[in-house]
Amino acid sequence: MSERPIDPISIDVGEVLQRNVTSLYATLVTRPTGRAVRMAIETQLRGAGTLSLSLIDFSEVVIIDFSCADEVVAKLLQQFLDDEARDAFFVFRGVHEPHRDQIEVVLARQGLAAVVESRPGDFELVGVRTEAEARVWGRVEECGTVEPEDVAHLAKEDEDREALNSLSLRGLVFRSPKSGRVHALSRLVSHLL
Length: 193
Prior knowledge:
There is one protein chain. The chain has about 190 residues and is an alpha/beta fold. It has one domain (about 10-190). It contains eight helices and ten strands. It has helices at about 15-20, 30-45, 65-80, 95-110, 130-145, 150-155, 160-170, 185-190; strands at about 10, 25-30, 50-55, 65, 85-95, 115-120, 120-125, 145, 175, 180-185. The strands form three sheets. The chain has a five-stranded mixed β-sheet with strand order 1-3-5-6-7. It has a three-stranded antiparallel β-sheet with strand order 8-10-9. Helix 1 (about 15-20) crosses helix 2 (about 30-45) and helix 5 packs across helix 7 (about 160-170).
């Protein structure tokens, strides 16, 4: 079934950086720069409604330091996880080696996890996660969409059912309130890639 329960938006961090921080270089290397970029992203997200999925694209960003990873990734995730009035989901695209360590460190410090695309079509769950969450996330990622009647097969054990619920609450998979389908975030943004 080709349900698209969320209409995703794409945000190019390199473009946001150049537009909001008068810089000729696509580098995120100071906390004020990261804060300015995060605030610009938040402004774009305000128009998305109470349910949103954002593809945050780092492809054009050459360098990101720890403070900017904290501002643009961890604080963005944390803010929307803490907002009970909104369901916001994020996929971070173009997370290459120069970005990965910084992003993983700030996610670990904050107890967060995120879905990242490190190479075209190669999605990973990074940050803090249990073995069961990683296993169940991998199954959902492999299936793309899990029908409600197949959820019991996907998560047979109590530990796996708890992991699936945790992944949904943490915004790492999307469970449609209308159909009950569980969606891999990578599939929901695939038409933007």
